[in-house]
Amino acid sequence: MEYRNLGASGLKVPILSFGAGTFGGQGPLFSAWGRTDAAEARRLIDLCLEVGVTLFDTADVYSNGASEEVLGEAIRGRRGHVMISTKLGLPMGEAPGEAGTSRRRIVAGVEAALRRLGIDHIDLLQLHAFDAATPVEEVLSALDALIRAGKVGYVGASNFSGWQLMKSLAVADRHGWPRYVAHQAYYSLVGRDYEWELMPLAHDQGVGAVVWSPLGWGRLTGKIRRGSPPPKNSRLHDTAQFGPPVDEARLYRVVDVLDEIAAETGRTVPQIALNWLLQRPTVSTVVIGARNEAQLRDNLGAVGWALSAEQVARLDTASFVEPPYPYYPYWRDGGFKRLNPPPV
Q1: What pLDDT is recorded for position 245?
Q2: How do strand 283-288 and strand 16-19 relate by DSSP bridges?
Q3: How many Å apart are CA 54 and CA 15, to the nearest integer?
Q4: Contacts with 312 (C-beta within 8 Å, 6 or more apart), sequence order
Q5: Residues tagged active-site
Q6: pLDDT of residue 237
Q7: Running along the chain, 344 residues long, what does each successive block of 10 average in pLDDT?
Q8: Most exposed of 9, 137, 289, 319 (fewest Cβ within 10 Å)?
Q9: Where are the beta strands (DSSP E) in the chain?
Q10: Domain total in the chain
Q11: Alpha helix locations (H) across 52-161?
């Protein structure tokens, strides 16, 4: 397993990490994702550790805390072998104090997460969304206090826009508070919006991408085909409304090329889609999920090899969508490109 620095930090993370969204299985969304209990989770974590996947990602909102509880039970006795990432900020209830990232909410949320996980510190804490009602100074000073108290190692953001992330980094620099070293963002062959602004920002500021839903919300699993509806057992029937939208014409263009490359390489469609992401600039780790051992083993097969430059170019072409203003000039005009070279 290859390890990369998480953004500009010294924390080394595996290029594949495991998402525990399938753990717990409560509520309309997460029960459709999976209902993995502690015994099953322990087996999946065993398989991850065997190949060097040591970072496990969850959130308080996943199954209303049950994901953290199951993950905590599954890592019991081997805390020193794993890194834990969790997120907070999305609503956990209807009361005013049960959403957002106020100082009170952050501190209480971290304490609750530590109890559910059964650990004394969180390796990476990410804010699940930007809270426009709370001053950035309040958010970052609270995170600074938690790091100084030894309860959090590193901090990151998730689902921020470019200006929200950049403002947070600027305020952190002004006050000497810890910077976000990670941005957990949606990025896939059928969702390349991350490249327009967030990728150049991440490259410039040293923020590592922690990629969620790398298979396009389950659309790049090899089960979706042109002219055929999703299989009856596809979770998309229950979860599509919660995920990022997708243009079907573009989806099928991508799937056609994935199928071609699968035939050429002997790799599966998910392995090819994940391998493409692992070659993209600023990507520190790609979060994979699995409801069972077979899915996990297949996803783990995305590493240890690389697509050819020609295959990457075909996937780039099939998945490309011209960005809106003000981004499109930098993609198609030579003069603009000279001012804004792509990340390397």
Answers
A1: 78
A2: parallel
A3: 10
A4: 276, 279
A5: 62
A6: 47
A7: 98 98 77 78 96 98 95 96 98 92 98 98 98 98 98 98 98 98 98 96 97 92 80 62 80 96 98 98 96 94 98 97 90 80 68
A8: 137
A9: 3-5, 12-14, 16-19, 55-57, 83-88, 122-127, 152-158, 180-186, 208-212, 283-288
A10: 1
A11: 66-74, 103-117, 136-148
Structural tokens at position 331:
């993609």
Query: Which of 106, 90, 108 is CA-nearest to residue 27?
Result: 90
Cβ atoms within 10 Å of 93's Cβ, excluding its own? 9
Token code pair at residue 4:
């990369």
Distance from C-alpha of 243 to C-alpha of 216, rounded to nearest angstrom? 9
Residue 184 maps to a domain: yes
Q: Is 142 a member of any domain?
A: yes
**Is 55 in contact with 287 (CB distance < 8 Å)?**
no
List the domain range (segments joined by +) for residue 327: 3-339
3-state secondary structure 214-256: CCCCCCCCCCCCCCCCCCCCCCHHHHHHHCCCCCHHHHHHHHH
Q: Which two tokens stand for residue 281?
A: 């600039």
Dist. CA 179–CA 177, nearest whole Å:
6
Question: Would 344 be classed as within a structural domain?
Answer: no
* pTM summary value: 0.93
What CATH number has the domain bearing residue 242? 3.20.20.100
In a domain? residue 112: yes
Cβ atoms 165, 207 nearer than 8 A: yes
CB-based contacts of 327, cutoff 8 Å, min separation 6: 196, 197
What's the start-to-end Cα distance of the chain, in Å? 22
Using alpha carbons only, give the angle 192, 5, 312 rounded to the nearest 5 degrees: 35
* CA gap 297, 319 in Å, rounded: 26
